[in-house]
Amino acid sequence: MGGSLLEDNSRFFYLEKLMWYTWSMPFEKSVGAVVFRREKKKILYLVLLKTPRKPKAPDYWGFPQGHIEKGETWKKTLRREIKEETGITKLKIIPDFYAWVKYFYRAVGEEAKKRKRKNVGLNIFKISTFYLAEAKTEKIKLSHEHIDYQWREFKKAYELLTFKQTKKVLEKANRFLARLQRFA
User: Fold this and answer.
1) What is the CA radius of gyration of the chain?
2) Has this prediction a pTM greater than 0.85?
3) pLDDT at res. 33
4) Domain segments of the chain: what residues?
5) What distance in Å separates the CA atoms of residue 52 and residue 62, rounded to the nearest whole number?
6) C-beta atoms surrounding 169 within 10 Å
7) What's residue 16's pLDDT?
8) Which of 24, 66, 107, 146 has the fewest CB atoms lying closer than 10 Å?
């Protein structure tokens, strides 16, 4: 069962404070994709090396993703972001797969200046929904946001990814594709 009434109340107070803090800050949604292609009998995943937004922050490996613009559907955003970041225009979005990554970040640089002018908070709560998309092309045209890319099998792609949550998204996508192949 639970602990003492005092422990239960302190947990409740913490959760209440966390909920207030989260709900009182700006909230953003973005979409991204675990992009893959087939080469012979292998599945290769696309990972991108992103340049940091903060000065002196390290580069990091991840997937294509971006903000949902006003009036856009998630599918339109997904296709736009993948095209902008990789040059890939022909994609097959795989149905029934999605994974969420939730995190907080602090706006810096131009984004921080815009937010201050609009009197909007600099601490942002963000939920990124990742989908699974198959590309037929190997050729990539990187945007200014990225400095490198690699097509890698699961194990190598997993090792390259920087963040634990992104690694979990790749694990989920890999398991999903393995199940699809078993029933194909």
Assistant:
1) 19
2) no
3) 97
4) 5-182
5) 12
6) 24
7) 60
8) 24
